[in-house]
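WARN retry 2 of 3 for item q-0093 after timeout on previous attempt; input resubmitted unchanged.
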Amino acid sequence: GQEEAFQKVDSLIALCRKNFFADPEFARSLAKEADLILKDYPEEKKIASIQNLYGITHDIQGNTDSSRHYFTRFYERSLELGDLVSAGNALNNLGMSSWNSGRFDLALEYFFSSLSISDSLDDQPNKAKSYNNIGLIYQELNDHPRSIEYHRKALGIREKLNSPDISQSYNNIGICLNHLGYPDSALFYYQEGLELMNDQEGKIKADLLHNI
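OK item q-0093 returned
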């Protein structure tokens, strides 16, 4: 029945996500299997999600045209469903795909569009992600002062949320400062980031021990 079909689809999607990087072809075959089940039991949000999975596996393999095709379908379907969070994710993925193919200006457009959606939803974690990605593109363009501006915005949100990505922001700011000729300041940020990473590892180990 439908309930069993959806359970199988959810399992295939989860397995697909686990295998993206290790074996994108295998991951895509799992997405296709889920897609086939949804032909008999259409569920629009899951169908949209599978377009995204196709896009990610193609992006990992460097198939830019295919990844853009599926991310665009994911974006359009998400808009049709009124699912703005997924639409923002689709724009972010289109930005990543553009970045991977060296189209930095286009990547910026997508990341700013994604930021606009997360801003309208007051979606703080995705706002931080967009700020971070915009900062990384400005790094690619060697505009380090502007890059620092966006990494600081990402850091501000991540500190409020006590996000595990704070260390990533510290590291990115450190890289920019080093490029600008401030090695002492860069070292400060690198060390702050490293300390946080060590603290997080300690917490993760403690949590694991607690769960045994």
